[in-house]
Amino acid sequence: MTDYRMNILVCGGTGCRSSEGATLYDELVSLLADKGLEKEIQVVSTGCFGFCEKGPVVKILPDNTFYVQVQAADAREIIEEHIIKGRKVEHLLYTAPETGKKVSDSKHMDFYKKQVRIALRNCGFINPENIDEYVAREGYAAMAKCLGEMTPEQVIKEIKKAGLRGRGGAGFPTGTKWELTRKSEADQKYVVCNADEGDPGAFMDRSILEGDPHSVIEAMSICGYCIGADKGLVYIRAEYPLAIKRLKIALEQARNYGLLGENVLDTGFNFDIELRYGAGAFVCGEETALIHSMEGKRGEPTFKPPFPAEKGYLGKPTNVNNVETYANIPPIINKGSKWFSGIGTEKSKGTKVFALAGKINNVGLIEVPMGTTLREVIYDIGGGIKGGKEFKAVQTGGPSGGCLTKNFLDTPIDYESLTEAGSMMGSGGMIVMDEDDCMVSIAKFYLEFTLDESCGKCNPCRIGNKRLWEILDKISKGNGTKEDLNRLKLLSNVVKDASLCGLGQTSPNPILSTMDNFWDEYLAHVEDKRCPAGQCKAMMQYVIDPNKCTGCTLCSRICPVAAIEGERKKPHEIDPEKCIKCGACMEKCKFEAISVA
Amino acid sequence: MDPIQSLIKELAVKHGRKRESLLPVLQGVVEQERYLSEHSMIEIARELDLPAAEVYGTATFYSFLEHRKMGRFIIRICKTISCSMKGKNQVLLAIQDMLKISTGETTPDGRFSLVETNCLGLCHKAPAMLINEEVYTDLTPEKVREILSDYMKK
Ligand SMILES: Cc1cc2nc3c(=O)[nH]c(=O)nc-3n(C[C@H](O)[C@H](O)[C@H](O)COP(=O)(O)O)c2cc1C
Ligand code: SF4
Ligand code: SF4
Ligand code: SF4
Ligand code: FES
Ligand code: FES
After folding, report:
1. Residues 410-439 of A with CB under 8 A from B
2. Which residue of B has its CA nearest to A55?
3. A563 lines ligand 3 (CB under 6 A)
4. Architecture of domain A541-596 in CATH?
5. C-alpha–C-alpha distance, residues A397 and A430, integer Å
6. For A199-226, b where at least 16 C-beta lie within 10 A, e where not — what string?
7. Which regions of chain A carry the CATH code 1.20.1440.230?
8. Which domains can be identified in chain B, with CATH numbers?
9. Torsions phi, psi of A436, nearest 5?
10. What pLDDT digit, counting tens, does each position of A130-158 carry?
């Protein structure tokens, strides 16, 4: 990168690419060539910058200018104005919502101020398809240090001292896991990377693999060295085509550089990595299910112990870690455990990557030190709630987690605090909900997900969740009773206690946490047959305000079931018996005479 | 040897004939054929020396290993929470209306299949869908009509 006078970084993450990022890149490259600048200025397609909300994103180095919502048509202006004349393209700069001022340097954006990037250190900086750029930023230095200067025991000790815990959900100490796998004796061991990310709202692992695949490869090699394995496997969702492509390129380049394969860096260490693809089954993210799936079987979980560290892939000791967990390893080795453990809280060290989605202004990918509060994440970084609406809840931990309300906004984010608050860290998806979201429907949504994804092996999960869903469905249709609420709670606890794997053991959490935090809303559904958020169709009634209705007849003509009657120029009326609550009339009425009651 | 048999043989040579080769072989057949017919599953069982029931049991576990005949373009629209919160239903209605099929069906000309799937990890750009390997995000009914019109010309 330093060989060039300037670098134009174009986000090549899936989010931006799918909204014109790819054509934008081509356009910039061809314009530079037209001007004969291709030797001085480089266009780099990077991984996600995190600010996906305002993508496609372009950043110019060395001056750090940050352009947002750049279209292919803007390429000419960037080149002619900024690159050639040195004048910033004002209208592409980000406007800070609070001050209305343009911000040019991303360092001054609220979105980035509170972030600390360890796992995402290279995302949005380097071209993930070029190993040289990774190497230029301390890439493979950690591996060289481990192989050349440290014994496996020393490496493990360093990781234990750093206090790194698994980022895949459970938060198990990574160094301890490596030590256990190292101590299991066998003729063959395996290093597995869990890239089966499937929690609703989660896209951290995809972004890391798209933006910095080498960091995962490097860390897996280090793990192989520590536990005594010469084979690694990445189990990745088939739904992530770009991540798969970049991972394949990275593996090939690492092999060509002698960083993977036989006799790595002339140290006598052998290690190579193979890719395995998921096939659309969420439960395969559970480590025992993942292993069965790699063995060519149905991806059904089995009881632990034995843990994969003792008996994993093909019955051999296997270390399974999450993508983000691995991405943290090289910086720990390079900068030392002391540096890492200086970040975060007492029991949760380092940072955590979160994917922000839902009704929040800045959807995207962020990384914050453990201990940052939910309020900082949602308001300072996330920019608050879309459309000036009221914050209602944030769901963390996906289908295993819970909904946290306003009262928990000052909870520091770490493994223990989130669990105590009735949710969990999970893998890092955060879905923000506003006043328009109905909590009964949200719980039902997560249950639907669980029903789809339950492997069906054990009864409490297969049947229990179905019954839970039915009760929720009954409540949302306005047929629930108070007795149903009790049954919901009772059965939720049975499913939690009696299920075999983590999926069933946590699937009732969204119900329990919404009941805890939004009891009144449940009561309104069963006692008053009313949905306070106005989402549950069965409880809604479309009504026409006779004072506003001009009798234009428009609504009666578009109603698909002829539920609206009235004479021309006279107020119309909706027959609640016939109305199917499609909402078409309300959308069409020019006089805002129709509302939901 | 029919084309399926030779495809399976080829895949078995590439991935091996061990139990852990089963998923890659199944995925290889789906990549080519878009789905697993009974014939394919029986042939895979023969080639890998597994009981056909095991092959069937494994294949039907995974939602991406379709065992019904699929169209040339498989539309997988995300139905999970972030996408639903951001108007996936209208998008789905627009697709159904345009292709004249319901979810789970294939157009009579064998071009399009429409399925709903769970979170695609594109929640920041919801609603999202995949058409084969291509990603489409921030969908609206208008946008999806445009995208499909392009595919109809292919
Ligand atoms: C239903 C279910 C789904 C899971 N999905 C994932 C996943 O997509 N990615 C992941 O890394 N871990 C997932 N896990 C956690 C894994 O079982 C395992 O704990 C993790 O991969 C260990 O890595 P870590 O220690 O680095 O977190 C899931 C667990 C359960 C019960
Ligand atoms: S809890 Fe659910 S997903 Fe887990 S093994 Fe039982 S049925 Fe399968
Ligand atoms: S469209 Fe509105 S104004 Fe016209 S008849 Fe219907 S309710 Fe009345
Ligand atoms: S909501 Fe739909 S069905 Fe009901 S009155 Fe309006 S247009 Fe007719
Ligand atoms: S995908 Fe471009 S900023 Fe996230
Ligand atoms: S919820 Fe639709 S992509 Fe995640």
Report:
1. 429, 431, 433, 437
2. B125
3. no
4. 2-Layer Sandwich (3.30)
5. 7
6. bbbbbbbbbbbbbbbbbbbbbbbbbbbb
7. 439-527
8. 3-59 (no CATH), 73-153 (3.40.30.10)
9. -80, -5
10. 999 999 999 999 999 999 999 999 999 99
CB B91 within 8 A of CB B137: no
> What are the Cα distances from residue A293, in Å, to A170, A215, A313, A427, B21?
21, 25, 10, 21, 11
The C-alpha atoms of residue A384 and residue A392 are separated, in whole angstroms, by: 11
Six token digits for residue B30:
């789906």
CATH assignment of A351-434, among 3.40.190.10, 3.30.300.30, 3.10.20.600, 3.40.50.11480? 3.10.20.600
- Give SS3 for A194: strand
| In contact, A265 and B27? CB cutoff 8 Å | no
With a Cβ cut-off of 6 Å, ligand 5 is lined by A 11, 13, 15-16, 48-52, 55, 57, 364-365
d(CA A571, CA A563): 14
Q: Which residue of A has its CA nearest to B23?
A: A296
Residue matched to tokens 């004072």: A547
d(CA A496, CA A133): 47
CB contact under 8 A, A201 and B81: yes
Q: Which of A192, A297, A323, A476 to mutate to test the interface with B (most CBs of B within 10 A)?
A: A297
3-class SS at A565? strand
Q: Is B30 assigned to a binding site?
A: no
* Fold designation for A6-111: Glutaredoxin (3.40.30)
Distance from C-alpha of B121 to C-alpha of A205, rounded to nearest angstrom? 9
Mapped onto helix, strand or coil, the DSSP state of residue A234 is strand
* Interchain CB contact of A30 with B (< 8 Å): no
Mean pLDDT of A230-256: 96
Protein fold of A439-527: de novo design (two linked rop proteins) (1.20.1440)
Candidates A16, A17, A18, A587: best to mutate against B (most CBs of B within 10 A) is A18
Average pLDDT over residues A567-590: 89
Residue A289: closest C-alpha in chain B:
B61
Strands (E), A214-294: 231-236, 261-264, 269-277
d(CA A275, CA A193): 10
Distance CA A59, CA A43 (A): 10
Residues spanned by CATH 3.40.30.10 within chain A?
A: 6-111
Tokens of A191: 């290093």
* pLDDT > 90 fraction of chain A, expressed in percent and rounded: 87
Superfamily of domain A131-340: NADH-ubiquinone oxidoreductase 51kDa subunit (3.40.50.11540)
Calculate the CA A338 to chain-centre distance: 28
**Stated length of chain A:** 597
Each residue of A252-299: pLDDT tens digit?
999 999 999 999 999 999 999 999 999 989 999 999 999 999 999 999
User: What is the A88 CA–ligand 2 centroid distance (Å)?
Assistant: 56
Q: Which residues contact A12 (CB under 8 A, 6 or more apart)?
A: A21, A22, A25, A45, A46, A47, A128, A210
Distance of CA A576 to the CA centre of its chain: 42
* Distance (Å, whole) CA B94 – CA B101: 11
3-state SS of A353-369 is EEEEEECECCCEEEEEE
Q: What are phi and psi of A434, to 5 degrees?
A: -115, -175
Q: Is B53 helix (H, G, I), strand (E, B) or coil?
A: helix
User: How far apart, in Å, are the Cα atoms of A68 and each of A10, A50, A86, A566?
Assistant: 10, 12, 18, 50
Q: How far apart are CA B79 and CA A466, in angstroms?
A: 18
Phi, psi of A581 (to 5 degrees): 60, 45
Q: What is the ipTM of this complex?
A: 0.94
